[in-house]
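Many introductory courses stop at the sequence. We go one step further.
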Amino acid sequence: MVSPVVLGADGCPASLLTALRAGKEAGRLRDPLLISHAIPARLGRRPAAEVGALLEEAILQARTTQPRISVTTEVVTGSPVLALVERIADAQPLVTSVDVTLPNDDQHLSATVMGVSS
């Protein structure tokens, strides 16, 4: 079984750059790309059109330089961190964009992380 490159896409501005990097990595490795979007249970349901647009934009960006990569998408409910941890067990590099608002509304963290699962 071929291990995918995993992209955690959350719709933040850094997601587009991250999707581009994930597509390049999948093309370099000649492996498929899995784009995962997790919706925290506390946020409830997001409109299907909104999630679909987010995933389509991530696919377009991933294929910018690697138009022939195989891409699958998924939407899960629950912790985005736990969802990615579950997926990296069988993955190649994990490419994720994280946009987190902490309990104190004036604290905002946005980061792009790239690592290799073991």
